[in-house]
């Protein structure tokens, strides 16, 4: 079981070498990340975009393009479609956003002809290595679905469980979070958390243990669970997955962890036919590299499952 990103990167070394297709690759931060990914034996890359600009950036950061396949496509939309088609056709294992806006990038992901549609709902999974917690923590959804319905939350759990399993976390403990630990009809988040728990107990959600509603402290702090007398719960401060009631709660928690705690993270869009790496320019270099490592282990798990 992977308990850190160091463990994840070691796990990557046990996999067949993966390849990432980068859409609109003329981005210095992304090129630095894919160069590091190659140096650390995480993944090779196919760089799709404006070849002249890619070369200019590569020269400035000491990147030898002889080690990479570069496909010259000047138009941003066409570059994204060319890159995603490489993944769609099995010529690459992962798809990564470069210098293209999120809307345009996701449009290529969902393209009916060459995209990575599966018919499942897409969701976002962020994996954290956090000081004070002795295992990887999976946060979802902090960036994609603003107000998930009960049905959305079932899809989110299923998507996240697959990522957990790829990381070696089997039968993960999923905590649907709320402000309180009991179902209150006046608080819809608690009602849905209780229903998700019932569905799990009835075998309608499988591959995990769901216990909610839970407050953040009960989900992540064994000492808090002990003090609150919650030792009879299925999750007593040892949750693997934090399922947020909406994007506000998730995004605020994510940013608090990034900016005010000693942490490392990587993230993916899930529910797609291959791992999709969607990072922003504000994400650190390490986040991008960690996301590539996460994508590689998920790609390996998806390949084995398809076999």
List the helices and strands and how they pair.
Layout: H1 5-13, E1 18-23, H2 28-39, E2 43-49, H3 51-61, E3 69-72, H4 76-88, E4 94-97, H5 102-109, E5 123-130, E6 137-140, H6 150-166, E7 173-176, H7 188-201, E8 209-210, H8 216-220, H9 222-227, E9 241-243, H10 247-260, E10 263-270, E11 276-277, H11 285-306
How is this structure best summarized?
With 307 residues, the protein is an alpha/beta fold.
Notes on the structure:
The protein is built from 11 helices and 11 strands. The protein has 307 residues and is an alpha/beta fold. Strands 8-7-9-6-5-10 form a 6-stranded mixed sheet, sandwiched between helices. The chain has a 5-stranded parallel sheet with strand order 3-2-1-4-11, with helices on both faces. The longest helix has 22 residues. The model has no long low-confidence stretch (mean pLDDT 94).
Name the CATH class of the largest domain.
Alpha Beta
Instruction: Spell the H/E element sequence.
Output: HEHEHEHEHEEHEHEHHEHEEH
Residue share in helix? 40-55%
Unreliable spans: none
CATH architecture of the largest domain: 3-Layer(aba) Sandwich
